[in-house]
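Dear colleague,

As promised, here are the two records you asked about, laid out in our usual form so they can be pasted straight into your sheet.

NAME FIELD: protein one
SEQUENCE, THEN STRUCTURE:
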Amino acid sequence: MANHFRTIIIDDDRSDVEELAKKLSQYPQIRGAGYYYNAVDGLAAVLRDKPDVVFLDIEMPGMTGLEFMERLDAKSRHHCHIVVYTAFVNHAVESFRHKALDVLLKPIDKADLDKVMTHLIIEANKSKRPTERVGDGMLEEEKHLLMYMNKSDFQVVKLCDICLFLYEEKTKRWQTYARDGNKVYSFTLKHNVYSKHLLALSPSLVQVHKKYIVNVAYLMMLKDNECVFFAPFKSIKGVMVSENFKKKLVEKFYSI
């Protein structure tokens, strides 16, 4: 089974963040990236959320990427892989001295990013940590659900394959969107299934609107309050985040 990396991007250049996030979305190993536009906020997030990998710019105001690595090493016992991505080749040697796993040069070349991802997977396999467990003790990636469509028919689905629940006003039933490999399929749940039942399934599920419950592991970004999902759910459009739920979404997203 492929490794999944909880990821944070730290860079003061928003266009660079968007470019990297777009490229990372092509890799199924990347599970939901958080974005920070300065190293101070990024350091607080890393200490709080303990991600698996950080893509870190070097030239930033307030605190440089090199200073970030020094402070992280001094403050945290949690180990995360640092991938420095920079436009300046001369930062490479100093980055490795600060225990960076790899260096990725701007503008990002797809072949170079492939090599970085391969390096990450190799290192993760050397020091594999247990996957987070859900309430009944099963690994979340292994947990299968029987989701009933009526009194007798049901759909078997992996919990980690569910991206979205959509409430249909006309039928008053929840529609489920899940993946089967790279394909997306949907089915409608039986009556008398409420949002509280769905949210109790996993800590990764959060309600973003009275009509939508999303799995933040597939959430790539918010754009004009609309959810943009990682592949294979990129084609799902119109999932809007209401102001009443936005704060809870941000808190949940960065806790993953």
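NAME FIELD: protein two
SEQUENCE, THEN STRUCTURE:
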Amino acid sequence: MIVTFDKEYLKELYLNGKSSDKKHRFQPDIVKRYKKCIDTLKHAP
């Protein structure tokens, strides 16, 4: 499956583990679970 991101901060969050803007800050546990969900989508047929 191809995963595309609507918002740039979501892409940064997945790739870097953090967002460059101060508005979208998340706890490390939330970021880890977000990455896990995106990886699950990527490996889906």
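A couple of things worth noting about protein two: The radius of gyration is 11 Å. The chain has a mean pLDDT of 91.

Best,
R.
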